[in-house]
């Protein structure tokens, strides 16, 4: 199942109750940016009989729960401003 960056952002904002405003296009494009990032899990499904057991919303929820459990952990990347409301 394909999810967009917008899907991920919307889900994270909803689950955190963040009031952050998304400013699409505010950063310059990068050489490796693409319109579509899509993993093909068919080989794992075929060879390993594996499918992802976690939905996008559940995975984001677990990630938020884990991050909050880390106490004073702070992100150290250029994206740290996006994490301040988590």
Structure description:
- The chain has helices spanning 5-16, 42-48, 56-69, 80-83.
- The chain is mostly helical and 86 residues long.
- The protein has a domain at 7-14 and 41-68.
- The longest helix has 14 residues, at 56-69.
- The chain is extended, with a radius of gyration of 16 Å.
- The mean pLDDT is 81.
End-to-end separation: 26 Å
Question: What multimeric state do the chains show?
Answer: single chain
Question: Helix and strand string, N-terminal first?
Answer: HHHH
Described by the principal axes of the CA atoms, the overall outline is: extended
Strand and helix layout:
Elements: H1 5-16, H2 42-48, H3 56-69, H4 80-83
Helix pairs in contact: 1-3
Offer a quick outline of the entry:
The protein has helices at 5-16, 42-48, 56-69, 80-83. It is mostly helical and 86 residues long.
What distinguishing features does this structure have?
4 helices; 0% strand; mainly alpha; extended; single chain; 86 residues
